[in-house]
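Reviewers of the previous submission asked for a worked example of the structure-prediction workflow described in the proposal, so we include one complete record here. The input consisted solely of the amino acid sequence. No template or homolog information was supplied to the procedure at any stage.
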Amino acid sequence: MKTTIQALITILICNVLLLTPIWAVTPEPAPLTGNKVAITGATLHTVSNGMIENGILTFENGKITGVYQAGGVDISGYQTINAEGQHVYPGFIMPDSQLGLVEVDALRHTRDFRERGDLNPSVRTLTSFNTDSELIPTMRFNGILIAQIAPIGGLVSGTSSIVQLDAWNWEDAALKIDDGVHINWPAKSYYKYDDTSDSIVLEPNKSYADDRSQLTTLFKDAAVNQDSSNLKLKALAGVYDGSQTLYLYANKPNTIIEAVTLLKQAGVKRLVLKTGAGALLATEILQQHNIPVIIDTLHNLPGQDHHDIDQVFRLPQELQAHGIRVGLSNNSWLMSTRNLAFNAGSAVAYGMSKEQALRMITLSNAEILGIADRVGSLEVGKDATLFISKGDALDMRGQQLTTAWIEGRQIELEAMQQELFQRFSKKYR
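From that input alone, the workflow returned the following structure tokens.
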């Protein structure tokens, strides 16, 4: 009986594999041709130097070689792309993503973003990054060409890396290896739904004292044992010599103030706060230590009942008004990650200019992640990681990518979703 069941399972698996349609295969990485390319007639959104109407952008061997106003520029010998009436943007950058670490949320064997235990600074996401993930093409089609692959869970989740989204393997994908360590600072209390009263109540965190003690002890030990053979302490050495960033996850103002104070006293050099509206009541300490903020997401409800309904949408503008550098993520749910640009676009309706909103997901994110020397803006010498859109890339009605490059390689934008669109548009035409 057991043998029969095993045989049936084997046959079922084989049938599933054989019946998988060819369009489910992700596009293969593009080769670097070495061609000299010139994009003409487009509006260039340089980010660092404003907008250039009717501009010309040239690149060769993966690097941008020129950003010009049209007229008087010799582009003979270049492969010319006429993008008249269209827009050229630097590739969008997604911080704090589990892209390539999870494929189907409901299937545990496709999830590889969380390690057992509370203190895991030595766990690295890069070696688990799946370059064949079917979710990657959906990000590229929405302009996201670079992502920080970050772990979650526990008190110290692990170490992230930054990748470009066109590679055969994680070695080729790596843009910045082991860029930082991610920690979750415990809150003294949290909101919980109470069945008996059918309401949200404030519950004390019973493990707060123990969790806080574990974190403070770990960072104190790491500060004085940077050459230790202990893998956990060794993995934290970079946050003390400045070679790595410590990404702090904290939402409540008192938690943010406590965590920043203790970590700075412990000698942490570079600190980035990943948070929501709680940062508004902790701006003084963020200014004091020049700590940038990555906002979780803008498509969200306000944190408290008494907050304005549009509080989250106004958050980037209000933080910038306090002189705080702001980047933007969209990690509420992996499948919604691709809507990063539309999150940024929502901020435009609540006080930000389009240039400021675009900067959040390009140059500001690049500066916060420590990769602004290579990406984040259209500047000579930077990687030719960019795309052309028919319309405004921050507006879901206008964003329509026609061509994209990663490090000068023209990538394939057609994937499973586009195949499905073509397939069923014929059926229902």
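The chain has two domains: 22-91+376-429, 96-374. We consider this example representative of the routine output the project will generate in years two and three.
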